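User: Assemble these into one structure.

Assistant: Restating your components, then the assembled model:
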Amino acid sequence: MELARARALFDPDRVRLEQHDPARDRTALRRLAVWAQRFSPVVAVDDTSSEGDMSPDGLLLDLSGCAPTWGGEGRLVEAAMKHLQRLGFNARIATGPTFGCAWAIARFGDRNASIVEIDDVRTALAPMPIAALRVDSKTIEQLAHVGIERVSQLLDMPRATLPSRFGETLLLRLDQALGHAIETIEPIRPVPPPRVERVFDGPTDRIEAIEHTVRELLEQITHEFARRGCGARCLDIELLRSDLGPERLSVTLGLPSRSPKHLWQLIRPKLERAHLGFGVEAIRMEARAVAPIRHEQAEHAHASQEASPSEADRAWAELLDTLGNQLGADRVLHAELRASHLPERAFRMGRAGEAPERVQAGVTQGDRPTVLFEHPDPVDVIALTPDGPVHRVRWRGEDLAVSACTGPERIGSEWWRSQEDGSDRSRDYFMVDVEDGRRIWIARSIQRERWYVHGIWA
Amino acid sequence: MPENDFQKLRPHPAKTSSERVPSSGPIRGTDEGSETPYVELSVTSNFTFLTGASHPEELVDRAAVLGHRFAAITDTNTLAGAVRAHVAAKTVGIPLAVGCRLQLECGLGVLVYPTDRRAYAVLCQLLTLGKRRAPKGQCHLTLHDLIEHQGSTASGSGLLAVVEPPDVLDEVFVETVRGLAWVFNDDRLSIAASFRYDGRDTDRLGQIAAFCDHVRAPMVAINRVLYHEPGRRPLQDVLTCIRSGCTIEQAGHRLEANSERHLKPGEEMRRLFARHPASVARSVGIAARASAFRLDELRYEYPLAACPEGLSPTAFLAREAWKGAQRRYPGGEPDKARKAHEHELAFIEELGYEAYFLTCADIVNFARSRGILCQGRGGAANSAVCYCLGITEVDPARFSLLFERFISRERGDPPDIDIDFEHVRREEVLQYIYETYGRERAAMTAEVISYRGRSAVRDVGKAMGLPEDCTDAIAKNLDRWGETISDERVREVGLSPSDPTIRRVIEIATELKGFPRHLSQHVGGMVITQSPLCDLVPIENAAMEDRTVIEWDKDDIDAMGMLKVDCLGLGMLTCIRKAFELLNGVSVRGPGGAPLTNAEVKAGEARTKPCTS
């Protein structure tokens, strides 16, 4: 459903907005797959249901030989259901002799949790709709066209006629569900994060030695990154201290990096502040989050061209990392221009690095102050006529004579945005020079007849 | 109901002038702001398609209510809305300055106003020139064209020009204005100044005033009006979105920053131009000179080309009609027919429509000579003269004709002769008309394509970012709902009435309903004149090759007393001709073995070709 449609159909307070993020869905499902390894060593993310924009929404577990450790399939399903509910998932679970059968029953069965025995496969599948066979919507449509809507109808048809009419996949899926064809799944193999460690002969509190070791470890771990074709997004360093708990240092990066120099620049200030206690016995380094980056050679080839954009982007990202790790990532913002007449809507502050592309938007012709107040400051103004010029200003307890006043600049409201009656809420802006030399930006709300200071030239 | 779809949503002011009471009470001499004489000279109506957000009538009415001495209309590169404004101005009794805003290729905008009939003709020629060399709907004019067509005479008449200064008053502009001042001599050139509310007005007005001193051209106050009252700003913003094909969220700086481009009272203009009072007063002077020309002065003359030397149109028509009567009634004209015939001739002479009948007869004769089946229809079938001339086939001797249904003194409408031609060969007839009378004298009538309920909702919904199915739900029901739309109605189609976007789409679409969207060509109306047609009205290219169209539609030309001949294409006539060919092919011959013609199937006329109105 489109957003505007949802808004049009329901009252505004009944609609909650959330941005759909397929990448996050995928990551979440993958994480859940790792979690599900407690039930079976063979767990796969089910990709068959991802048609079009839909994200994959299922996990396949090979339970061969796993049930007895849980005291039977029933117990296992029960436990899985309970845990998933606790995690906040609304799950449907089915077990069966084939993946296809379990897939169908989990999605189209009438209970949230079901177990199909080996002899019941045919009877369980018969009343299912064709969609339960994991075929694409085109095939479903074709079959519906000739009146076939249930698996049972398909089972009654002569096998040989199916492939020529509806494609090979249909028969394969049917066979897989019934157990006539083999189906394998590709289980997830959790890759341990890159990790290096150095144990000292004895505790040391010599910062030079520690720094040296950290740099060596960085060299090692970046080699590992290069081998895997990735770079660090988040790097943890643990200093194991004698008689004290480990000291943890952590750096996060905007763009993945495997440059030891850059990583060292980020780590160094933190290392200098680290509390070494009675001495450090070992240093452990682990890349908690990694992301793929292009191969070194490709990058060199690219870099040979003058003013390569990737070079500029990387320098930009390194600057943001440095600032972000020093000040905190939330405190490094960048302004994005937006095309709007309203001064407070003419830009948007975003977390730096989240939208690296700089948008080209027209800029208003009018003069704008260097500092725009987030909350306009009420002010008392003496003016002869409503739309100017301003003669005296009483602002923040000071009574100020006006030496020059330019304006008005009249800016109408964005009528399509206001939720109320849509009455025109225009403002008049004046650029006012006051006697002490300051230049302030005063707005008059025409409908409310109130004056505000909206910004100053600093 | 397709018929309903084609109904005129907004009647031409000429059709409603008798019952139309201007919206806001007394017309002239209200106290509101009438102390300061002012006339808005830059008025863009919705005939500058997808830009202006008010009808010409609304603008004229509002100008009258505000106590302006004159109303004006200056659509960009067109006079399409001029007749409507003229009729509206006559109704409310305010003189109108007809003008046009020329958007030149170099980016300069110049407002021009003719001061007399000759200057008006020059303006029409200028627009025709720009339009004929551009694709449909565009107008390519340069500064050079304007200088060549400024229509100055020794008596000081000609076009008045008001130049809109660019943002930067640079050397180029100084030279341009100097060049224009050279040709627009005798105080006919002014520099426009407007209060834009962009924060720099004081400086800018000062700069323009200094500039005016420098080039010795006077400054005149305008407000670049796009709508008659500020409440139309949402509609104007939506029009901008429709024009640039974006949604309101994306439109950004393409929209106007505020709602100031409406008609303002003189008092307000005096306050805004407090330091330049002469510029406000000057607007009245310009409008007074411009309104010396009235569209009423346009004299429509019917072409005399069809008359042989030495015969007056009256005598020629009488001769042709008598000749025709002899042909129609070889045994002598029956009394009833003769009486009708004589009565009609006298009537036609009195109203001066002879040339019109002769032209129709000429076209019909041409078609006959080429073997193109044709048939007059509609009101003209009530005329004995039309029967004698061979335009129609309804015998006045056998039927009681209602001539007054066709032409009547009381109604004052010009006669309307519609002729059907075989639809596949109609183009031959049209090209014959263009050839005989020349492209300067003959052109198709325009058809103003207006927003209907559905198209309005579609375009507004799209601009407001509504998804298509929601828009469709409203579009399907808007016509049925009528003027007032209750929450119930909105809920009925499954939408939430409390959603402000839905409300706004409905409101704006209701306003947009009846707005002209573009000009198209009338199905068959040809306008033919004696003097060059492009002296009367600008002519532009049609989408179809080899067609030229005037800027006015059939209501406009009715209001101006211009006559048109409707040359319509009728598929059934093609069908009948093919039937004749088949009959002739199987050697079914008419009497005497001659090939069968239209005339010989007359026996079953009433049944086979019931061509009545």
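The CA atoms of residues 147 and 268 of chain B lie 35 Å apart.
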